[in-house]
Structure formats: structure tokens, C-alpha cells
């Protein structure tokens, strides 16, 4: 998909997709949104020392980069798997300012995330392994167990097939006990789908510009 580079209100970039009239992140702030939903409400709630993360939608790599930074800060070892059907163009990736905004000393690590080959586990740092898988999530067979899930697909209005009970059940069955799934989407139909497959679901306060988000836990 073709994308356009935009600046959000916190100074960080996002990408806009004219084809579906949707941005990858909130216009109120890409970094603050991702940190609030996926790091504060998700990753930081997992107290294991070695954490397997599954991301649905690698996108700009922002969630993965934030996870690397948080993992290093907390002394965690992270194995990160990201499923992406529409990899972003490399020239757009190179223009993203996330490393400048978050930690300039990790600029080369952010670049390595994007330059690393697909469908192969790569050591980004001694404590962070990344496997970007070029696939359609709806037909992909998940064959590992996960502790944290970042569900960051495009909205149900744009990708309804990603948000079904069938797809959430597929994730649930590959979750370790206590696994946490977070998503920006708090629609009732999504909350009920998560509950129907077995997750315990909470509504949490959202980041600026969003009233609520969802956190689902496998009890």
C-alpha cells in the first residue's frame, strides 16, 4: 500500500494510507498512543524475565522499537514476532523520526529492525530477537506460545476479517496462562468477541484523543 508521511501532535511521525483513508497511529501522537496502549497497559504488566511477544501488524516498527527500549530498561529478554501483510516501503521507513524522538543512541537498532530480512529470526541486540513474518494473519497458523500480544491491525471498519472470534480464538489458544492482549479498539463487538473465546477483558482509559482501550487476559 502507498503511504504518506505525517507529523502527529507529539512531534512523532505516522503514515497515512490514502487507499483506505486511515493512519497507522493517532493524530494526537503516535509515540504517546503506542506507549500507552502496548507498553504501559501491555508489556509492563508481564513480569516474566523472558517474554514472547506477538504483534499483529508490524507497520512502522514503532511498537517493536518501544518494546526493545522498555525491555532493555527493565532487564528483560524479548523474543518478538510480528505478522505483516503490507510491509511499508523502505524509503518511508528511513524517514521515520522515532529514534530521534525516543533515543538517538538506538538509531542503528531501529534501522536494523527495518533492514533485517523477513521470515527469519534476527538478533537486533543480545536481549531482543525479531522475526518479521510476511503473511496474511487470517490464514497464518500460529505455532508458538506467547505472553504478550499487541493487536494493532487497521480498524474493524477497514479490516473486519482481522477482528473476528475465529481470529481471536486462534490467538487465545497460543497464549500462555496469564498472557495479555492489548488493542486500541474498544468497540463492543471486539470486546464481546474476546470474551467469547475465553479472555477476561477490561476497559482502560485511552491515550489523548481516545476514551477507552481494551486489555484482555488469559486466566
What does this structure look like?
The chain is α/β, with parallel strands linked by helices and 219 residues long. It has a single domain, classed as Rossmann fold. It is built from 7 helices and 11 strands. The strands form 2 sheets. An 8-stranded mixed beta sheet has the order 6-7-5-4-8-9-11-10. It has a 3-stranded antiparallel beta sheet with strand order 1-2-3, with no helix packed on it. A hairpin with a 6-residue loop joins β10 (200-205) and β11. α1 (30-40) crosses α2 (62-74) and α6 (165-173) crosses α7. The relative contact order is 0.16. The mean pLDDT is 97.
Topology:
Blueprint: E1 4-7, E2 13-17, E3 22-23, H1 30-40, E4 50-56, H2 62-74, E5 77-84, H3 90-95, H4 98-102, H5 107-115, E6 122-125, E7 128-134, E8 146-151, H6 165-173, E9 175-183, H7 188-197, E10 200-205, E11 212-217
Parallel strand pairs: 4-5, 4-8, 5-7, 8-9
Antiparallel strand pairs: 1-2, 2-3, 6-7, 9-11, 10-11
Helix pairs in contact: 1-2, 6-7
Short description:
With 219 residues, this protein is of the alpha/beta class. It has helices at residues 30-40, 62-74, 90-95, 98-102, 107-115, 165-173, 188-197; strands at 4-7, 13-17, 22-23, 50-56, 77-84, 122-125, 128-134, 146-151, 175-183, 200-205, 212-217. The protein is globular, with a radius of gyration of 16 Å.
Amino acid at each position: 500500500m502507498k503511504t504518506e508521511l505525517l507529523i502527529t501532535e507529539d512531534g512523532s511521525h505516522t503514515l497515512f494510507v490514502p487507499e483506505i483513508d486511515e493512519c497507522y497511529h493517532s493524530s494526537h501522537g503516535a509515540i504517546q498512543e503506542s506507549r500507552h496502549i502496548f507498553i504501559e497497559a501491555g508489556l509492563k504488566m508481564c513480569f516474566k524475565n523472558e517474554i514472547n511477544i506477538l504483534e499483529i501488524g508490524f507497520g512502522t516498527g514503532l511498537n517493536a522499537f518501544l518494546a526493545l527500549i522498555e525491555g532493555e530498561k527493565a532487564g528483560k529478554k524479548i523474543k518478538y514476532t510480528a505478522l505483516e501483510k503490507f510491509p511499508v516501503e523502505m524509503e518511508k521507513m528511513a524517514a521515520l523520526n522515532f529514534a530521534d524522538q525516543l533515543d538517538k543512541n538506538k538509531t542503528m537498532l531501529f534501522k536494523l529492525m527495518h533492514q533485517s530480512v523477513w521470515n527469519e529470526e534476527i538478533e537486533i541486540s543480545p536481549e531482543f530477537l525479531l522475526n518479521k513474518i510476511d503473511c496474511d494473519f487470517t490464514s497464518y497458523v500460529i505455532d508458538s506460545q506467547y505472553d504478550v500480544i499487541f493487536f494493532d491491525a487497521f480498524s474493524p471498519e477497514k479490516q473486519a476479517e482481522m477482528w473476528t472470534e475465529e481470529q481471536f480464538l486462534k490467538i487465545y489458544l497460543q497464549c500462555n496462562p496469564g498472557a495479555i492482549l492489548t488493542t486500541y479498539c474498544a468497540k463492543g463487538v471486539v470486546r464481546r468477541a474476546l470474551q467469547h473465546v475465553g479472555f477476561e477483558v477490561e476497559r482502560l482509559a485511552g491515550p489523548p484523543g481516545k476514551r477507552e482501550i481494551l486489555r484482555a487476559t488469559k486466566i
